Fold this protein.
Amino acid sequence: MRISMISAAFVAALVGYGSTIALVLSAAAAVGASAGQTASWVLAICLGKAVGSAFLSWRHRIPVVLAWSTPGAALVAATEGISMAEAVGAFVLAGLMIALTGALRPLGRAVALIPDGIAGGMLAGVLLPFVLKGAAAAKAAPSLVLPMLAVFLLVRLRNPALAVIAALGLGLALAFGLGAAAWPALSLPLPRLTFIPPSFDPGVAVGLALPLYLVTMASQNLPGFATLRAAGYEPPVRSALGVTGGLSAVIGLFGAHTISMAAITAAICLGPDVHPDKDQRWRVGLAYGAIWLGLGLFSPAILALLAALPAEVMLALVALALLGPLTGALATAMAAPTDRFAAALTLAVTAAGVPFLGVGAAFWGLLAGLALHGSERLARRG
C-alpha cells in the first residue's frame, strides 16, 4: 500500500464527506429523523460505502469508489409530509430496484430509454431550490456567508474538488471565532445502528422511491461507470449495481439513503499519480473503505460540531455543494435541441415542489416531461 494511495483515498473521502454532509443532515431533518436516527443514518451509509468499495475493488481488481447519492439526498430533503418509517421503506425499495437493474436486463434497458434531457431536467428541478436558498442565507448572515463564497470561488479556480471543503473550514472558523456558534461538548461515544421498521406506502413509493432510484442511476451510477471507462477500466456494471443496490436496501433499514458509484471523487483515485501501474491501483479501494469506516466511527463528534453551526452556514454549504451538480444537470437537460422544451417543463414542475395525490413533485415532473416528449415525437413523425 503506497502513501500515494492512502493520500488519494483520504482526499476523496474528505471531499465526499465534507462537501455534502450538510445535505444529508437536511434530508434527515425533512423526514423527521431523531438525533439517534440521524446518527444511525450517517454511520450506516459510511459503513455501506466502506464495505462496498473494499469488496468491489478486491473482487474485480480495479479501483471502485462508492459515494452516497447527493441528488438522492437533495430529493429526500425536498420532500414534505413523509415520516421516517415511510422514508426507510422508500430507501429499501430504491435499493432493491437498483439491484434488480443489474440482475434484469429489460429493466436496465427501460431506464436507458428515458431521454437524458428529461432525466437532467428532473435532477435540475430537485437541486435548484437548494441553490436558491444560498442567496437568502447570504442576506441573513453576510459576515459568515459572503467570505465563504469568496473562498469557494478562489479555491475553485485552482482545485474545484476542494472548494466546498475550504468554504466549510472558513465557515467553522468564522462561526466559532465571531461567537455565532457555541463550541459543543465533544466526546467520542461509539455510534450505534438503530433499526427502523419500514412502512411501505404506495404514494411514497411512487413519489420518492422511484425518483430516488432514477436520479441515483442517471446522475451517479452512469457517470461513475463512464469515469471508470475513461480511466482505462472496464466497469463491472452488473456486479456494482447488485452490490450497491443490495447494500442500499440493507442500510436503508437503519435510516440511510442509497449509495452508488462515485464520479468526481472517483477521479481522484484513478490517475497515474496514485500508482504508475494501473493494475495495482485497485488497492486504493481498500484504503478508501478503511477511511470511510473511520469517518463512520467518529460521526457523533462530527455531527455535534456541525449541529452547532448557524442555519445560514449550513444552507450556504448546501447551495455551494450543489452548484456543480446543478450545472451538469442543466447542461444535460438542454443538450439536445429536440428535448429542451420537455426538459424545461420537467424542471419547472419538479422545482415547484408541489405534491399531488400524495405523490412528490419529482414524479410529476418526470411524467409531464415524458408525456410532452412523446407527443412531440408523434407530431414530428406526423
Observations:
- Residues 41 and 256 are 4 Å apart (CA to CA).
- The longest strand covers residues 66-68.
